[in-house]
Amino acid sequence: MVENTFETDLNHRVDSVIDSKYYDDDGRPKRPGGVWITSSHIITAVIGSGVLSLAWSISQMGWVAGVAVMLFFSAVTWYTSLMLADCYRTGDSITGPRNYTFMDTVSSILGGWNVTWCGIAQYTNLFGATIGYTIGSSISMMAIQKSNCLHDSKGADPCHVSANPFMIGFGIVQIFFSQIPNIHEIWWLSIVAAIMLYTYATIGIGLGISKVAENRTFKGTLTGVSYGDVRKVWGIFQGLGNIAFAYSFSMVLIEIQDTIKSPPSEVKTIKKATHISILATTFFYLLCGCSGYAAFGDKVAGNVLTGDGFYNPYWLIDIGNAAIVIHLVGGYQVFVQPLFAFVEKKVSKKWPKIDNKTLKIPIPGLSPYNLNLFRLVWRTVFVITSTVISMLIPFFNDVLGLIGALGFWPLTVYFPVEMHILQMKIPKWSRKWVFLRTLSVICFIVSAVAAVGSVVGIILDVLH
């Protein structure tokens, strides 16, 4: 009897060693993420198509306000992201229960109606981001075709190009990539996307600087574009939304944090990755936005690499736009995977038989691939839907501004601030409590006016 007990105990210890080697403390497979993979995820999520609208956004506000607003959004995003990172585990930051999604953190800390509101804000914003990325990728693909056409015809052909075929092509690519099961398995796509980001950002900066050298002067003004008063106001509001979109990644921060291996603690790694990512992002944003505005002044295009400013060398512009497209393929997946996971988790609980249906696809020389039928159908329908909506409202700056405005305050500011106040038990009316609540109110006002400006922009574009 003693021998059997000893043998059972020994087997249990061996199993525990095996489990701890391959599984984390919550029984899930070991997470692979380190600082650099996590930084790649964040950079891929933060820096998307919004980077190329920054020169236009600065032009709406001018050198002083434009740069100041960009630094403001950078500081707020960095500050609130650090607060949000502390919410990944409830209680102890090393051994406490994990919150796998943004909604899980809100549910465990705030609860009540906040959970519903968070779900609506987060997943609407994620869906909107896929539309913005589809529009952005099509504009870059159009720019490649137009650039080659203008070069071949030496400017004689106006080279009118339709966006729809490119949106459809981007959608087809996303249908295939969307079959990647979860965000843990797209780390390689994030690294490729991050490399592409630095490629096209460097090209955009280089072209802007060369244009400034060619002009022998810095263009732009301290107060920005000088058209009619009402239009100026709408332009400023829309520019705020564009910059907010350019910094939006809080809605996937917890999901990214859930890909991090430990030890060290996930909080320590995500904070280090956030420092690196926000610093790199702000550096590139200032260079891209300022070089573009200095090159073209108040006439800068909504997308600096696809406007009418840069024509030569056409092959370099083509490389830059191709890099944008590849980056947006990865960015699309970073944003959409949490939405896929949310829906599939709900379906799995309610209709387990539907979610468990799989199809075995034989692969010569390899083990067969198990294709989940529900995943195939639902994700394909989702991509088709977002592509069709993108084709109906292909207004780049307006759409980015609206998405950024709707998501910035609730996801980047309100929820992180409210959870931080509760977690840290900050006394009501203390100096820090007043500061955090004031910050939240200011950001709410910024988001509200940005949303109004973007809606007006969409209406004006539709009417014209």
Q: Span from first to last CA?
A: 87 Å
Number of strands: 2
In total, the number of domains comes to 1
> Approximately what portion of the residues adopt beta-strand conformation?
under 5%
CA-atom Rg in angstroms: 24 Å
CATH superfamily, please? Answer: Amino acid/polyamine transporter I
Mean pLDDT: 79
Question: Could you please describe the fold and organization of this structure?
Answer:
- With 464 residues, the protein is mostly helical.
- The protein has a single domain (33-463), classed as Amino acid/polyamine transporter I.
- Helices cover 72% and strands 3% of the residues.
- It contains 15 helices and two strands.
- Strands 1-2 form a two-stranded antiparallel ribbon.
- Mean pLDDT is 79; it is low at 1-18.
- Belongs to the amino acid/polyamine transporter 2 family. Amino acid/auxin permease (AAAP) (TC 2.A.18.1) subfamily.
- One of its GO terms (biological process) is amino acid transport.
- One of its GO terms (molecular function) is symporter activity.
- It is a multi-pass membrane protein.
Topology of this protein?
Blueprint: H1 2-22, H2 35-46, H3 54-85, H4 102-109, H5 113-153, H6 164-177, H7 187-215, H8 229-246, H9 253-257, H10 266-296, H11 314-350, H12 352-355, E1 358-363, E2 366-372, H13 373-392, H14 396-423, H15 431-463
Antiparallel strand pairs: 1-2
